[in-house]
Structure formats: structure tokens, C-alpha cells
Amino acid sequence: MRALNDLGLLERVGVLSCVSGGSVIGALYAYSPEQSFEEFDARICEHLRSGFQRSIALELMKPKNLVPTVLNASATKFQSFLSRWGLSERSVHRYPSRTDVFATILDREVYSGVKMGAPRRNDVEVVLGACDLRTGSAFRFGNEHSGCGRFGKLTVNDIDVGFAVAASAAFPVFLPPLDRTWEFSKNCKESSQRVVLTDGGVYDNSGFQVLEPGRDPKYSLHSFPCEYIIACNASHGQEQGDDLPLAFLPRTKKSFSVVHRRVQDMLIHHLHHLREGGTLKGFALPYLGQQDSALPWKPSDLISRESVISYPTNFSAMTDEWIEKLSARGEVLTRLLVPTYLRELLA
After folding, report:
1. pTM of the prediction?
2. What CA–CA distance (Å, rounded) separates 114 from 123?
3. 253-260: which pairs have CB atoms within 8 A and are 24 or more residues apart?
4. 142, 220 in Cβ contact below 8 A?
């Protein structure tokens, strides 16, 4: 974002589609129209230094949060056990949970109670992607409307930005899904539906789907066909080959990682196909795991892939050194790839 701002492109972005941890940064940028980019940059760095793990732990330890969270988690597990034996239907909502606490922190400390329909910087369209585990489909929060293809639009889009970001960033290994029953409208019919929302990266880790040319708005709640796409993410790319995932948890985690990487590879091939077919004028894909040897040329100030690839994405507090290393890599890659592949945008 620093590089795009310096290149004069950031303010020209028409759609900001975010998933997972990227929703934290993207939403703060979009919903702080009164601040300069430098002020936004400083706020993001402040939040990165603090992280969210400690805030979640401290908030969770408050009696008003700890007691209902523990009781509810126990109740849902007990009901799940009974359901396996046909003794009960699963009706208890897992609410509140650690992710609800996360949403509260985001709403209070980052977004100050702003709703999805609030004014946005440069009137940019915003889509924050999550995944509904009940239906295995995308659930997206937008400034105009929120919902999913299966159930339709929320009848009232009165969603806190903090809640939408928490749903989008609820990585299933660390945070439980957000469990809600809402009113939806589809084909002029209203219905009450239960959704179980987890990290948007489970369904679409790039946020690209809503930007895809040819997407039919009659069947898609969010459709913003774009001529140019700049897709930035923290994917690690090819595996290093250093792990020996033999035990249950390591091999399960690694299996998930392999599936995730293959989906990312398919996305890159699809972007090339769209560009070659002329339906997409161009794209740039600066990402953490970019193979340095595959770059058009290697800038002297490039932070190498090997020096940053192992950094965890788990909302822990970051040092200034790591903030600068990670952002500097993204900045240099963007400054290299955008002029190389999207030169006409800079003319």
C-alpha cells in the first residue's frame, strides 16, 4: 500500500477485496477517510506492534467474558456429543466465543464502532470475505450489502466493521467461528438462517473472485469486474522441504497447507489465462513467497524470501524490525512488478 500510494495508484483503486488478516489493514484504510495515508500508516504500525493476542487474552479473562464463554463452549461440546448419538439437535449457538471477544476489541480499539455502510476513503467499494462452514460457501460483507449466494442478502446490513473483520480473519486453528442466525432475503422471499463464519481464506484466499471479469451480477451478490488487478498476499509459495510431518497434527496442518497452495497456484494460472484471453487487461501479484529468482530483475534493496518466509501470521506483537522487513519486501516487489506489468497505469 505504501508503494501504491507513492506511485499515485492507491487513490485510484475502485474495489478493495480483502480476506483473513488483510481485512484488518484494508478495512482500516477504507474506513478512515478523514486521515491522511501517513496517519493511517502510523496507526497500522501501532496495531502491529501491539498485536491482538494479549488483548484477546486480557479481555477474555474478565469475568463478564470468561464465565459465559467457558459455559457456552462446554454446552456446545456437550450438545455435539449428544447429537452424534441422535439424542439432540444442534440448536445452541456458540456465542460468545474467543472470536466474539476479538470482534469486541476490533470494534472498540480499531474501528470505533463504524458500520459497513459508513463513508469510505475515495468512496472505494469494500468487500470483506468470510466462509460459512455450514454450507461451505463464501459469505461476504460489503458496504452496500452482505450475505451469500445460498441465502441471499441480509435484510438489514447493520454490521459492525469490527465484526466483519473478525469473521474474515478467524483462522480456524486459533479462533472458533462466529455463530449467528440472521434474516435473509432472496428472490423476494425472507428466511431466517444460521451461519457459522470462519476465515475467508478457507474459501477464497485472494479475494479475487468478486473481481473476476464475466461474473454475472444476477447470480452473485458482489460483482465488480475489473480491468486491472493488484493482488497482494502472505502466501508462502513453494514448500522449503525442511519439515517431516509424521505426527497427526503436523501432517494435518501440512495437508491443509498443500491444498491451500495448490489453490493459489490455480489462481495464478487463471489470472494468466484471463490476461491472455483479453478479458483482463493486466495484473500484478506481489506476495511474500515470491521466488526471487523468477523476478524480471532483482533490486539491490530487495529483502530476500528466505529471510522472511518463516514469519508466523498469528496476530502476535511484532517488533519494528520485522514490521520494516516484511513491509519493505512488499514495497520493493510492488515497485518492481507494477511498472513491469501494469506500465500503462503509470502513463
Report:
1. 0.90
2. 15
3. 253/173, 260/201, 260/205, 260/235
4. no
